[in-house]
Amino acid sequence: MSIQWYPGHMRKATREMTKILSSVDVILEVLDARAPISTSNPVIKEITQGKPIITLLNKSDLSDPIYNEKWIDYFKQDKQKQTLLINAMTNESCKKIIDLISALTRKKSGKNTLAMVLGIPNVGKSSIINMLAGRKITKTGNEPAITKGQQKVNLRNGIMLLDTPGVLWPKIEDPESGLALAALGSIRNTAVAYDQIAPYIIKSLYQKYPDSLKDRFKIEPLTSDEYKAIEILAKKRGCISKGGITDITRISEIIVDEFRRGLLGRVSLETPV
Q1: Residue spans per domain, the chain
Q2: What fold does the segment set 193-260 form as a domain?
Q3: Residue 211 burial by CB count (10 A; 0-12/13-18/19+): exposed, middle or buried?
Q4: pTM of the full predicted structure?
């Protein structure tokens, strides 16, 4: 199954970002710490050649802490990038990001450093901007593609942020990456059904975090067949429609929602090679 989502506004946004890059001093690339490879847009790498990049592994409070450190080591291999683990819902990372921006750029007195914030939909770009600004500047939410155009935000400390729309790339080659993006909410729900995403989540958890399933759903043992497992979970949660038919859509919505909110434990969908 191949999941694709590349609406017209994303193509336009990529063109607009490319045009302004010459005036940008540093790139803040925001990734989801639960799947850093799948949430890294290959087009961004192409258009940002030569620019210093700060990679922010956001939502690290939702990802496996063991793999968090391994991802830091992995990204250290790229000499163009500096990498930080962050949680945009707290202010703990704010000073680290500001200090790193200042260290990577040397601006003349009286001129702001322009930092472009890039990332795919729903990785938390707007939340990071609000955290750095110390106030709510941009709209946030769990739906992808909330930010529609570029917006400059003056941090009043010599740094100007450029918020950009979340953009994917024209064709997602790896089906596993498409499923990971859908699970993380980076692909709009109208482009992929919950009952396509839930089996991927259950399979991933069974293989890597079986205790998370046991602890959350109070079922042991759970079958390795993700589709049968979903039927079992549906009965456990009372997702039964008239006539005793299992409501797969409803239980799938519950599984996806609880995964995205971190209720199924701290989970990493990808591990460094």
Answers
A1: 8-163, 193-260
A2: Conserved Hypothetical Protein Ylqf; Chain: A; domain 2 (1.10.1580)
A3: exposed
A4: 0.89
